[in-house]
Amino acid sequence: MRRYISTWDIILVVAILLVVAIGGSTVEGVGNDRFWRFVVLEMIPIALIALPMTLVVITGEIDLSVASVLGLTCTVVGKCYASGITSVPVLIAISLVLGAVLGAVNGVFITVFGLPSLAVTIGTLALYRGLAYVVLGDKAVTYPFELARKAIAPIPGTTIPWMILVVAALAVVFGIVLYATPIGRALYAMGNSAEAATFAGISVARTKFWLFVLTGMTSSLAGVFWTFRFASARADNGAGLELSVVAAVLLGGVSIFGGRGGLIGVLAAVVLLGTLRNALQLADVPANALTIVTGSLLIVSVVGPNAFEMLRARWRRRRPSQIAPVHTP
To answer: What is the rounded distance in angstroms from the CA atom of residue 102 to the CA atom of residue 14?
Structure first.
């Protein structure tokens, strides 16, 4: 387990317990079944996007267009529904194809034309959001409440939405790929040095391209869930969600420079963000203050893990030598 769980991951788990303990003793409702239900509902879209985003950041890239992909997916699904396409499997299939295309656009600009992912995805962040307004404008498409109720229905015997099972299954798949396959080792190699990875025979461009396609597909899947959960499709759905996703990935211990990090810490960070935000909402903290908290956590997510690693390395250097003395006859 030491191979997969770092000290930083344990710190995040302790932080979750502290938030629950302090919130439960000072704010009414923190820690009960209803509280955890809303935490999971808020976690689902962030976790869905954070899974492939973790792999993208490990390779040294980033995708800031994910929330706009989610929003564009919502509008397309809404337009299709308003046009008479009401089959949920068909709507999900259309969404996944759309997400793959949008992710492929990012991948082509980054891997074929060699443009930096930060600049490309900032551009497509605005482009995809603008297209969402072209599709629906300021209008909204509403869905029957029955459809929304099915989307957030709890697992029998619990209050936890069943969609968390989909997130858990995907997390297992992504974990196996990252920790137990040559693909995972290749991702870390690319993050440490793309040039060295190329000399080692790794197809850097092709791998990164498919990662962006995968990120687009999971963002679209999150868009479908978002649409059905709120029973409404709007062009501004998910606006600003990319900040929460990036904060979760970096707070989870993934280096912004690539080559370091893992999924366990990212999932713990997603839970921490959801728990903290819902506890603050129950404490009647204004929405503007919640944005400040998210921004502050984004800064901590960049500084915290790196500062922790620096302190730990310095402590190791200062430890006295553990070499046993040699006794001569």
So the answer is: 38
Per-residue pLDDT of the chain (329 residues; tens, 9 = 90+): 666 677 888 989 999 999 999 999 999 999 999 999 999 999 999 999 999 999 999 999 999 999 999 999 999 999 999 999 989 999 999 999 999 999 999 999 999 999 999 999 999 999 999 999 999 988 899 988 888 888 899 999 899 999 999 999 999 999 999 999 999 999 999 999 999 999 999 999 999 999 999 999 999 999 999 999 999 999 999 998 999 999 999 989 898 899 999 999 999 999 999 999 999 999 988 877 888 887 887 787 777 766 776 777 788 777 655 544 545 44
Q: Which CATH class is domain 7-312?
A: mainly alpha
SS3 142: strand
Tokens of 33: 């079944």
DSSP state of 215: H
The overall pTM is greater than 0.85:
yes
To the nearest 10°, report the CA torsion of 207, 170, 131, 249.
Answer: -80
Tell me the two tokens of residue 186.
Answer: 């290749």
Q: What residue segments make up the domains of the chain, in order of their start?
A: 7-312
Q: 201-207 contacts: CB < 8 A, separation 24 or more?
A: 205/111, 205/112, 206/111, 207/59, 207/183
Report d(CA 285, CA 294) in Å as an integer. Answer: 13
Q: What is the secondary structure of 250-300 as a DSSP string?
A: HHTT--TTSS---HHHHHHHHHHHHHHHHHHHHTT--HHHHHHHHHHHHHH
What is the spatial distance between Cα 311 and Cα 307, in angstroms, rounded to a whole number? 6
